[in-house]
Amino acid sequence: MELLKITILGAGNLGFSIAKGLISSRLVKKENLVLTEKNPKRLAALISDGFHALDDNKQAIANADLVMLVVKPWQIDELLEDIKTIVAEKQPVLVSCVTGIMSSHIYAKLGCNVPLFRVMPNTGVAIEASMSCISEHHTTPGQREAIRTIFAQLGEVLFIPEEQMPGATAMAGCGIAFALRFIRAAIQAGVEIGFSSEDAKILAAQITKGAAELILQNNSHPEAEIDKVTTPKGITITGLNEMEHAGFSSSIIKGFLASYNKIEQKK
After folding, report:
1. What is the pTM assigned to this prediction?
2. Taking a C-beta distance cutoff of 8 angstroms, is the pair 8, 33 a contact?
3. Is the CB of residue 51 less than 8 Å from the CB of residue 68?
């Protein structure tokens, strides 16, 4: 199944990142992509950049094969009320990237059971490096494959049951910020041991990228890769142990759990 005309309702950070990823991956032509934006200045900026951007949700989805909902959780009910008549009539495939909003809630507000995918991507989607977790409802195999194709072009894809979405939000959504915080700390360390901030940034980013690629390409466990660079009485194990004494692993685990628990509390 081809989803040729795509509308993204909400061109904020994530929505615009998805738009850039779709265009850069050549999955959709710019003229077949519609964005919505309520802020007049941002709307004007999108139009000046050559995007087909509107401030009218109903007009934006009138001819869409695929409609992506990329708004804040507190905005979703108003949005669904605005578009429900057209959705019921046109029956587009929906993709919801709205954090914490269950499919049952979306269906209750729409009053119809259209094909729906809940997707938790992250901002890496703009450079085709997202981790996107997807659950599906009332879909066909063809629709599933179309959504897989779209998000696989924008990074890695994992289909999961909807009950795992809070965990996916913590891992994929929050996790990219946690990884960036490690890079920031590594940059600070690099400066302290004598590198310029620019050189330290390149070093920190590349070692993180290399570590991730070792896991993905070798399908190995982190400890197996760590063992390759640790030797008895060596400098690597000394640094690792010092980090663990300071609570490195436990602080990361606590961070993920804190984010996950906050999501669960909001249900």
Report:
1. 0.86
2. yes
3. no
Q: What is the pLDDT of residue 264?
A: 86
Q: Minimal CA–CA distance to 165: which of 18, 257, 264?
A: 264
Burial of 178 per CB tally in 10 Å (0-12, 13-18, 19+):
middle
Based on the fold, state whether residues 122 and 33 are members of the same structural domain: yes
CATH code for position 50:
3.40.50.720
Are β-strands 116-120 and 130-137 bridged in parallel, bridged antiparallel, or unpaired? antiparallel
Classify residue 173: in a domain, yes or no: yes
Q: Confirm if 82 and 22 have CB atoms less than 8 A apart.
A: no
Expressed as residue numbers, the domain containing 202 is 169-265
* Alpha-carbon span 164 to 155, nearest angstrom: 19
Structural domains in the chain (count): 2
Nearest to 165 by CA among 123, 126, 137, 125: 137
Facing residues of 117 across strands? Answer: 95, 136
Q: Do 25 and 83 reside in the same domain of the chain?
A: yes
**Residue linked to tokens 């703009």:** 126
- Average pLDDT per consecutive 10 residues, the chain (267 residues; last block may be shorter): 83 88 85 93 93 94 95 94 95 93 95 95 87 96 92 93 94 93 98 98 98 96 96 96 97 96 83
